[in-house]
């Protein structure tokens, strides 16, 4: 336990100090990895703990992003940057979740997909949201005491938020609520027989995941200053899915590793070869066949930490 | 006005039949193997490109129509034996990852072999003009597609409902363990079904080729409509696949004609509506 | 077996990742006497890779002619695949600006990527020469002193066609384009000159982007009584629309016209005879008979295995010409960016499309001509034959103040 904490502390310090030792591009790459990592972590709560495989998680990422884009232009503060996107995403998750929870398995996958695609179609075609080019020129929020427009200021701001998100999710997962979720994942019928209002728990998990995804979307907008309908596209959901699986489902932290692996693969490999899609595909296939626990699962197996 | 409606209905029928041919293989694989095969679109794409090459080499559409699905079916068999069969017990997550990886792989492979340009697949000489039926002008090839698709539906129904093989498949869809317990080599059946489903996907690619052309991203683009039809019709149901695709075909066609701007949304709205009223799809097995 | 496999896999993956991670940042040359770095943000994978390749080839033709050296400095092209996705495109732009420290940035194809990179480019005072994306906004309210465009604005190929179609084809026209901003902008430009010329819109439809079945729209067109159709489609949409237009037998009674992308060489081979007779407006066709173009076509085909150059290759060619001439004019001094911008602004030379000039008000290219072309069978196959032309097409550029 202490070893784990120490390792974690070292990691956090390394992440924090990274801008001091690395050049601009690697730092920005890391920041993007962290942001997508938050998105993937929220999906892991849903998938890995509640057992709900959603292919429409990008809906909340996109909503958080677009709401942040719209509000930051008018009033660039933390309320616009964090509170409003989270609220909007949470509300959407409540509505979408209410309808989607009624089905499960493949049907759940497809229904959640349908909802996110509807958002995609809408934002793609209406001009008040910038149509297919989306919204640009979005300022970062003013954070007291920090120069968020500078690389290091933003890095500190981002790290704090990512840390809070990770911590928050970790606490949720460790709490009684989280245990009920895992129980539902293991055997839903049993939990129902024990008297748990299973649907309410699932909805709550869906909303929490949606809120965190919305924050991730907002962070993305603050990072790049722009957003396009691609945020809603099913491939975005699919990529988060892949990040969770590669990192290791049901580990929360694994999602960050998965995000790093995916983004590095996507960005670096394509710099060197045109055949990056082939390499990506082969990597996934190899992963599935030989490293089924994802990165975290495989590492744990080697270190003998899991049965 | 009547001629207008009839013309659009005919368009919708042709489109619906294409959807049926595309989705029937997917629903069989879903239903029997419980496998989330995201690479089904890739089979469709491979069918189109193989058809393209065969037509180019042999100059005959009909031979390509027969041969291309066989090739794609073999590819399907190879994939099932090499990787997919290890994942039957592992559940949907790993299958998603594997088949998603295959999607990337095939898209790049196709681009590597055939180049990235859009390729046109010529319709057979017999059906290369347009005809006017009851005041509606429609390319004769689309009439062929309608006929072909309906005949295929009948043949498949006969296969599944009236043959021993079909009985085995139906039993396997219902309960694979029991079927295995009855002494049937379920592994062989699984491989055969997967290959057959892949071949059907490939067939739909060849048939759709003269209408929709061939390009490396087509496997990805066609995936969503295919999945939606399967879900609307009900997993594993041949009847559902047919009815679902015909319904969606009409909905999409009339939606495009009458409600401008909604074209992107129609198929999702239809799916969401069906799922909210009947979550298992039109003809799927009840869920709980 | 499994243990070894996992360990080997993880180990190799780790090494590969580390190597790939460290690699590019270890090599970083610095400014003056080193090579002039030209960054390219283009699609090199996916459907639009053919455009990225054409543009790149046009540029390579020019740089190769200069032996990859200008004003005593080597030219280094750094190509980055943006995969036609804004998040990736923006990331690659940052890499080129922050990490590679390119002297001049070029690209992209995707307007969404262009809009997303605009602020980054402007704020970092990086010179960007847009070699494809046609978003009107970049020459209007989002223009910048640091951004030039050698390709076209979406407005340019369409505006002259409005009046021309009304005068020479028909006044009863049905228009169509994919349902996205670029599509609406292009048709908007057409309407701007079509309606005042007495044109009547018999119908207007916006199929979804990436539509594969145009049957409902084609049936509507036939039923509308239109004498001509004007449309904007590109890529696979252009192939499917034109082929299905022909399959439905519409060509006999309704003339097909559109913006040039409808029948460009990236789609014409797939369309085949279905495209015969289509009339489109574009700033280029390989059949132009000016001297520069004839030489361009010959050299391009010689260098790239007989490939026919298209508008995209011409865009790349012009981009590289602008760069080469500017570098010569400043004697290779890429440190004084303001001077470089001034020199680029004054670019003027013979391009395959005609006499090339930038509009000093918007930094957008002034199309010497928009050629009206008809698809015909000529020696060597199907091609866009120029049948008429409109001179000096300049984007109106409203709202552009060229901030620095």
Characteristic key phrases:
heterotrimer, A: 307 residues, mainly alpha, 13 helices, C: 404 residues, alpha/beta, 2 domains, nine-stranded mixed beta sheet, six-stranded mixed beta sheet, 12 helices, disordered N terminus
Architecture overview:
The complex is a heterotrimer of chains A (307), B (288) and C (404). Chain A has 307 residues and is mainly α. Chain A has a domain of 213 residues. In chain A, 76% of the residues lie in helices and 0% in strands. In chain A, helix 6 crosses helix 7, helix 7 crosses helix 9 and helix 10 runs parallel beside helix 13. The radius of gyration of chain A is 19 Å and the shape is globular. The mean pLDDT of chain A is 88. Chain B is mainly alpha-helical and 288 residues long. Chain B is globular and about 60 Å long. The relative contact order of chain B is 0.20. Chain C is α/β, with parallel strands linked by helices and 404 residues long. Chain C has two domains: 208 residues, Response regulator (Rossmann fold, 3-Layer(aba) Sandwich); 128 residues, 3-Layer(aba) Sandwich (Rossmann fold), CATH 3.40.50.2300. Chain C has twelve helices and 15 strands. In chain C, strand 7, helix 6 and strand 8 form a beta-alpha-beta unit. In chain C, helix 5 crosses helix 6. The N terminus of chain C is likely disordered. Chains in contact: A-B, A-C, B-C. The interface between B and C is large, with 41 and 36 residues.
């Amino acid at each position: 336990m202490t070893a784990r904490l120490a390792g974690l502390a070292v990691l956090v310090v390394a992440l924090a100090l990274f801008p001091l030792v690395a050049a601009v591009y690697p730092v920005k790459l890391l920041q993007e990895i962290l942001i997508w990592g938050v998105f993937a972590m929220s999906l892991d709560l849903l998938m890995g703990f509640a057992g709900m495989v959603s292919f429409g998680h990008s809906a909340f990422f996109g909503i958080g992003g677009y709401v942040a884009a719209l509000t930051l232009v008018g009033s660039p503060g933390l309320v616009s940057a964090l509170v409003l996107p989270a609220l909007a995403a949470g509300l959407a998750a409540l509505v979408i979740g209410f309808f989607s929870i009624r089905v499960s398995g493949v049907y759940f996958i497809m229904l959640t997909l349908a909802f996110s695609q509807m958002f995609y179609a809408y934002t793609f075609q209406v001009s008040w949201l910038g149509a297919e080019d989306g919204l640009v020129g979005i300022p970062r929020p003013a954070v007291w005491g920090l120069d968020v427009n500078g690389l290091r200021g933003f890095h500190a701001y981002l790290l704090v938020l990512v840390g809070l998100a990770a911590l928050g999710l970790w606490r949720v997962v460790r709490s009684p609520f989280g245990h009920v979720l895992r129980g539902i994942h293991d055997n839903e019928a049993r939990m129902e027989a024990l008297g748990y209002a299973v649907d309410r728990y699932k909805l709550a998990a869906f909303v929490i995941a949606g809120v965190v995804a919305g924050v991730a979307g907002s962070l993305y907008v603050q990072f790049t200053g722009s957003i396009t309908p691609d945020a809603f596209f099913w491939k975005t959901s699919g990529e988060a899915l892949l990040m969770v699986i590669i990192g290791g489902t049901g580990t929360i932290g694994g999602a960050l590793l998965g995000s790093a692996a995916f983004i590095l693969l996507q960005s670096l490999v394509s710099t060197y070869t045109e055949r990056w899609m082939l390499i990506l595909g082969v990597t996934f296939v190899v992963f599935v066949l030989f490293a089924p626990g994802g990165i975290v699962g495989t590492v744990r197996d080697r270190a003998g930490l899991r049965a | 006005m009547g001629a207008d409606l009839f013309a659009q209905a005919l368009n919708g029928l042709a489109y619906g039949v294409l959807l049926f041919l595309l989705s029937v293989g997917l629903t069989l694989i879903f239903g029997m193997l419980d496998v989330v095969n995201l690479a089904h679109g890739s089979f469709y794409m491979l069918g189109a490109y193989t058809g393209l090459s065969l037509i180019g080499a042999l100059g005959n559409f009909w031979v390509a129509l027969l041969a291309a699905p066989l090739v794609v079916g073999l590819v399907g068999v190879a994939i099932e034996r090499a990787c997919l069969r290890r994942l039957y017990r592992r559940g949907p997550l790993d299958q998603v990852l594997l088949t998603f990886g295959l999607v990337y792989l095939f898209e790049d492979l196709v681009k590597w072999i055939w180049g990235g340009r859009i390729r046109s697949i010529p319709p057979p000489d017999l059906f290369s003009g347009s005809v006017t039926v009851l005041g509606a002008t429609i390319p004769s090839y689309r009439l062929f597609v309608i006929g072909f698709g309906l005949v295929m539906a009948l043949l498949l129904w006969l296969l599944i409902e009236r043959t021993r093989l079909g009985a085995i498949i139906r039993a396997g869809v219902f309960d694979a363990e029991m079927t295995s317990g009855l002494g049937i080599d379920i592994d062989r059946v699984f491989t055969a079904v997967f290959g057959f489903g892949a071949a059907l996907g490939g067939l739909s690619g060849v048939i759709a080729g003269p209408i929709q052309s061939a390009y490396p991203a087509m496997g990805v683009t066609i995936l969503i409509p295919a999945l939606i039809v399967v879900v609307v019709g009900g997993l594993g149901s041949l009847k559902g696949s047919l009815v679902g695709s015909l319904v969606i075909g009409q909905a999409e066609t009339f939606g495009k004609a009458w409600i401008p701007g909604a074209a992107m949304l129609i198929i999702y709205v239809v799916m969401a509506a069906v799922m909210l009223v009947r979550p298992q799809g039109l003809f799927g097995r009840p869920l709980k | 077996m499994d243990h070894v496999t996992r360990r080997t896999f993880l180990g190799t993956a780790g090494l590969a990742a580390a190597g790939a991670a460290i690699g590019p940042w270890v090599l970083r040359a610095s400014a003056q006497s080193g090579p002039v770095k030209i960054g390219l943000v283009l699609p090199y994978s996916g459907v639009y890779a053919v455009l990225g390749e054409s543009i790149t080839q046009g540029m390579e033709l020019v740089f190769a002619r200069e032996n990859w050296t200008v004003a005593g400095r080597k030219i280094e092209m750094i190509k980055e695949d943006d995969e036609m996705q804004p998040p990736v495109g923006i990331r690659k732009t940052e890499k080129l600006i922050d990490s590679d420290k390119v002297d001049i940035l070029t690209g992209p194809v995707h307007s969404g990527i262009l809009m997303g990179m605009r602020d980054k480019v402007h704020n970092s005072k990086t010179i960007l020469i847009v070699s494809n994306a046609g978003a009107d906004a970049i020459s209007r309210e989002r223009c910048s002193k640091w951004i030039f465009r050698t390709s076209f604005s979406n407005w340019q190929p369409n505006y002259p066609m409005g009046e021309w179609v009304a005068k020479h084809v028909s006044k009863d026209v049905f228009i169509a384009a994919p349902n996205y901003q670029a599509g609406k902008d292009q048709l908007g430009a057409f309407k701007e000159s079509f309606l005042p010329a007495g044109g009547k819109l018999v119908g207007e439809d916006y199929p979804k982007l990436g539509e594969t079945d145009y049957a409902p729209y084609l049936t509507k067109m036939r039923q509308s009584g239109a004498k001509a159709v004007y449309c904007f489609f590109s890529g696979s949409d252009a192939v499917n629309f034109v082929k299905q237009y022909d399959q439905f037998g519409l060509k006999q009674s309704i003339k097909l016209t559109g913006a040039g992308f409808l029948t460009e060489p990236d789609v014409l081979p797939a369309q085949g005879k279905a495209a015969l007779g289509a009339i489109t407006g574009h700033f280029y066709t390989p059949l132009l008979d000016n001297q520069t173009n004839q030489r361009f076509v010959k050299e391009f085909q010689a260098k790239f295995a007989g490939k026919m150059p298209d508008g995209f290759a011409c865009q790349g060619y012009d981009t590289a010409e602008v760069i080469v001439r500017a570098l010569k004019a400043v004697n290779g001094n890429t440190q004084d960016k303001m001077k470089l911008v001034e020199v680029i602004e004054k670019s003027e030379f013979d391009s395959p499309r005609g006499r090339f000039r930038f509009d000093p008000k918007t930094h957008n290219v002034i199309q010497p001509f928009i050629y009206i072309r008809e698809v015909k069978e000529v020696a060597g196959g199907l091609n866009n034959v120029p049948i008429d032309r409109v001179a000096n097409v300049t984007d109106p550029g409203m709202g552009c103040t060229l901030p620095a």
